[in-house]
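Repro case for the chain-ordering regression, as requested:
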Amino acid sequence: MNSDHFRNFCIIAHIDHGKSTLADRFLEITATVRAGEMQDQVLDDMDLERERGITIKAHAITMNYVAADKRRYTLNLIDTPGHVDFSYEVSRSLAACEGAILVVDAAQGVEAQTISTLYQAIEGDLTIIPVINKVDLPSAQIDVVKRQITDLIGCDEDEILLVSAKSGKGVDEILQAVIDRVPAPVGQKDKPLSALVFDSVYDPYRGAIAYIRVVHGEIHAGMQIKFFTTGKVFEVAEVGILRLKKEAAKSLSVGEVGYCIAGVKDVQDTKVGDTITNSRNAATEPLPGYRDVLPMVYAGMFPTVSEDYEDLRTALDKLRLNDASLVFEPETSVALGFGFRVGFLGLLHMEIVQERLEREYDIDLLTTMPNVEFRVKLSDGTMVEIDNPADLPSRGDFEYVEEPYIRAQIIVPKDFIGNVMKLAMERRGVYKNTSYIDPTRADITYEFPLSEIIFDFFDKLKSMTKGYASFDYDFIGFQKGDLVKLDILINGDPVDALSHIVHKDKAYDWGRKICKKMKDIIPRQMFEVAIQAAVGSRIISRETVRAMRKDVTSKCYGGDISRKRKLLEKQKEGKKRMKQLGKVEIPQDAFLAILKVD
Amino acid sequence: MKPAGPNTINTKTAALYLHIPFCVKRCNYCDFFTVAQQEKLIPDYLRAVLREVKSYAVVEPWRDEIFSTIYFGGGTPSLLSPPQVGEILTALRQSFQFSQQPEVTFEVNPGTVTSGKLPAYAAAGINRISIGVQSFWPHELQQLDRLHTLREIEATVAAVRRSGIGNLSIDLMFALTGQKPSRWRHSLERAVTLKPQHISAYSLTIENGTPLHKMVQAGKAKPVSELRQRIFYNFTIEFLEENGYEHYEVSNYALPGFESRHNSKYWDGSRYLGLGAAAHSFDGRRRFSNVRSIPQYIDRLDNGKLPVFSEELLTTAVRQFEMIFLALRHSCGLDVNEFEARFGLRFQEKFQPQIDKLLAHQPPLIKFEDSRMRLTREGWLMCDSVCAEFA
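-- result from build under test --
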């Protein structure tokens, strides 16, 4: 079978610029979705994705379209996740395509995230089809956005399509452009099988299902296949294409996109970016670009009720079946008991996992403040990685600490450059470069320690720029930092779950603020509670929760004993939900105090 | 002879409470069920009370119960005329069985009783008067929305004495918003010179929903600091003890032999029947309360129904907790042997962590003496927290 009627493409767009609406129009035009099957934005099939209005995991769908030349084409739309936490998945989705539709909102213009994905696509030699969406909006600035796009990708203005995905206007022209401009896949059918895994999902009945793009050769049921990174061999049970549901096929050949079921137990063995080959006639090289996705952010997750520990373990195990980037190991905290240290790709990933555990598995969680991974050069010369601040050795036992850095791209109207620079300075940013997307909008590059941006950087950036800034980042490596461990002590005892690694210059300020916040959160008890912040043995801040000195209600309400009893029971109930540290009772909120510090 | 404590009092007799919810004016701190300027409803209300009396007269366990106290509380019972009081007492005597010489208390507000009324109340059977004085500072009385004057307080006390009623109680309040210690000392000093048999000294509680609460929220009144409340409370205990009053309950003080027998029944697990709107009852197994509305109360009884609004059957766990926290409010404390006998378990074993914690507190909050658990001096100040531990 010839592959010249295949077109594999994706859509690059900023959140809310209309990617999902456009995808819906494609499905309607190509009759991939019949009337009645249509739900808004069918590609986002997780509830959470729908609620957050973003695509978390990539998906793909195969459509058929009869073009102007009356030929029937097979179009594979490969969706890309819309968040920086999942940038590696984005890169693998792009690698499965020959073309990309760049969608830019006519009123909003080009945003940082669009640009970074676009650059990846250009580097991967994808054909870019520029589209301006929402051209019907009264606030549309078509000429301005056209100029941004031509500056960005060096195309001619007349290559840019004007579209309203909402009304459907111009959508047919996009599909025609995909056929005209995006090259058909090139591969050799007679070469050994090479197929790129660009996504995988877990099915409770069929195991891990790999979403693949065949580059060379052919894959069919009964074939013995091998995954390059693990070397594991499986027999293919079924291959097929992805319509709204899976549709089994005899085989998948050069250029085709579909799924492969091969009795793989969990998604740890169907890693995104991996290459599948024929184990009996193997390709000599894997496809380029595979890398292990490493967690960027770690946090402790503890059940609020200790009896839920086993349930939490089971739930995490189940989530991992479906999420190869989730890593965890048991952790014991003096303060919080038994739980897990969990690694995430980023804060959104963390929130998603947290929400799924609470919603789908009904586990009440206490998540400690997230931290990045540090590298510590010990005094004996060895280098160790630590993902838990409590594990940082004491000052004399290590030479230095390295922390992860990222390169950030911030796009902002030029009036806000001053504000961005101010924020960057507070966050230890190292200025690199400014360029202009158009006369009014600057594209600023900074390097930041990752730890400075994982909490609330984006929120702060948004509020300092009236919502105009957009932001994206890439991990660039580890750098030495003058870092210290900030301990929080309650009545003299350090609380491991509150330890935090911070830059030396910030330790005092942080310590003071955390102590203040904790003072507001910890209720008064029958004795004095001292909250201290310490670096090593040096106390740098102290707050005191004064002892409760009088707590007695005068009246017993003329025989209304029930009311009195209920008040006392409520008082006791409030205490039960607290964590006991020594004799001090601490509300769960206190463990998140650091996140609430301004 | 030391007066008997609530756990040793004859628990076989019951108490009877009668709620008179009418007031000339509502005080800004009050969150009891009361209504102002509705005196025209009094005759209908009393008619309903008499129906309620008749209804319970034939109902277990009240039919066979021996009552040893009656308490007219409010509101302002002294808005009733002596004949109205007499009619109720007569109906009660006809309907229920009473012990010899029951304690019959009547709450009065100074200014609502003329000197003629008190002998008439006494003649009707009232033998204990509780006067809602609250303060001996004119300015503080105004601040509390109390309508009476110092002269009226004096006159009322004198009238009680003349009426031959020998058992007098005075209600006082401290920790009023903005109150200075010297003012409180003055009120206490004036109170003891009147030589009442009993003094209730309540720390002002700012209850949600009261006008006072709104004033505090709006910054128009400043609550007394906790430290100062502590000083007020400790001073009250010391001062009254020096003057011969025994501190026998969180807020109550009495000359020997003059504890309120009625109130003690709330704390010692006795049965009590509450009549009138919003009144609370306990029949040994159930706690129940009446509707909090005068028209509804009247309407229910006119239609031959009991005016019960809510009820709760007590579980064993609840009964255990109630016994502990009610007993702790009294100076006699909890009789551990009685608790163990009643519930068939070892008190120290069941509550080991709580006991350890309260004993380890510096200074300790509880003490064990003669197989009783009592609050220490520090424990009195922290009574709610101590009690909550046992919930």
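Ordering looks correct now. The first strand of chain B starts at residue 13 and ends at 20.
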